[in-house]
Amino acid sequence: MKNEPNQPINADYQPGQRLYWTGQKSNPDISNQYWHQEIELLDLVNLVNEPAIDIALIGYVCDEGVRKNLGRVGTKEGPRVIRERLAKLPIHFETKRVADVGDVICIDEDMESSQQAFSNSINTLISNKILPIALGGGHDMAFGHFMGIKTSLKDNPKNKVGIINFDAHFDLRPVEQKGNSGTPFNQIITELSKEGESVDYFAIGIQRQSNTKELFSIAKKEKVDYAINYDCESSSTELEGLKPEFGIRNAVSFNRNFHKQLRFL
């Protein structure tokens, strides 16, 4: 994943927006109590002029990869919904500065450009010593997310990046002409192999009825470790693993949920 310097990327960007961060008021005589009161809104373009931030939320507003994968579109609403839910939660991160740096937005059905723009944004955040938390969006986001991390570490001797994927699906489908939400980890493996590198990929919660024999063969060939959902004790943060009451509509069908007790680490 490379783009020529100074070449415009066919994707939109919108800085953090206050309208997503609303909720209950608290006693003005005490410190902030809720996310919507504490969250800071920043623009990636002016990041160098801002005080130090510890953690940044960045959205990937794109479900073009889901559409190409013949899934249920709607995942582009994910970043907005996640923010609206977070806004109303109590805060317990007094020692950390958390910011919403906005969204990378897919336009003209151009998923590839959105992935490149997202990769650039992730690279920018990490290069400024900010931990990015990506809000999707289709799982095609994973390719841009990974490549942004990889790019940010290119001059670091400790630049090996591993992947842990909580998901019912491998998302290892071969790329036919263009990628989609089912191909990101195959794309990562392919991209790294061009440089003579490999990646350690561990998928947790894999469902046999959600992956073909071909995908299990690819996983074996690429030395992908995985845990079948029946063997999992805790649940997934990927929407396929959550019961419907815990998330928005899923992009793909699935037949079995993880253990009903959720753990968010």
Helical region count?
Answer: 7
> From N to C, what is the helix and strand string?
EHEEHHEHEHEHEHE
Low-pLDDT residue intervals, each spanning 5 or more residues: 241-250, 253-265
Identify the overall geometry: globular
Mean pLDDT: 87
Give the radius of gyration.
19 Å
**Biggest sheet features:** 5 strands, mixed
Percent of residues in helices comes to: 25-40%
How far the N terminus sits from the C terminus, by CA atoms, comes to: 30 Å
What is the CATH architecture assignment of the largest domain? Answer: 3-Layer(aba) Sandwich
What percentage of amino acids are in beta strands?
15-25%
Structural category: alpha/beta
CATH C-level of the largest domain: Alpha Beta
CATH-level-4 superfamily name of the largest domain: Ureohydrolase domain
| Overall strand count | 8
Q: Write down the domain tally.
A: 2
Secondary-structure map:
Blueprint: E1 11-14, H1 35-38, E2 40-41, E3 55-61, H2 64-68, H3 78-87, E4 98-106, H4 111-127, E5 131-136, H5 141-152, E6 163-166, H6 184-193, E7 201-206, H7 213-221, E8 225-228
Parallel strand pairs: 2-4, 3-4, 3-5, 6-7, 7-8
Antiparallel strand pairs: 1-4
Helix pairs in contact: 4-5, 5-6
Please describe what this structure looks like.
By secondary structure, this protein is an alpha/beta fold. It folds into 2 domains: 1-161, Ureohydrolase domain (Arginase, Chain A, 3-Layer(aba) Sandwich); 164-265, no CATH class. It has 7 helices and 8 strands. It has helices at 35-38, 64-68, 78-87, 111-127, 141-152, 184-193, 213-221; strands spanning 11-14, 40-41, 55-61, 98-106, 131-136, 163-166, 201-206, 225-228. Strands 1, 2, 3, 4 and 5 form a 5-stranded mixed sheet that branches. Mean pLDDT is 87; it is low at 241-250 and 253-265.
